[in-house]
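#structure-requests
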Amino acid sequence: MPDAEDVRRVALSLPDTTEKTAWSMPTFRVAGKMFATLPEDETSIAVRCPKEERDELVLAEPGKFWIAGHEAQFAWVRARLTALEGEDELRDILADSWRQAAPTRLLDAHPRLGLPAGD
């Protein structure tokens, strides 16, 4: 099961990613734009997720994903680290969120990063 240090290591391995403390928690940014946080006690991550997909994730896997009340109007979802199937799933989630925040120049430079295999 991934932990906060795995989140940090994987997030910082993504291109042009930096860590910055905001709201008293670690946040991860690509080219200055936030794509992940380690809220509260660092047992979960918050990542970007289109609202339609977010709602489907929460319905399909409520033990893994949920929407924090103060983030409900934003396109973010939380994932419990203990519920993730391992580092591959963590990497997929973080890379997908990274793609949503990354500028075009980085998406063009890393066209496969964060995309499902076979797409």
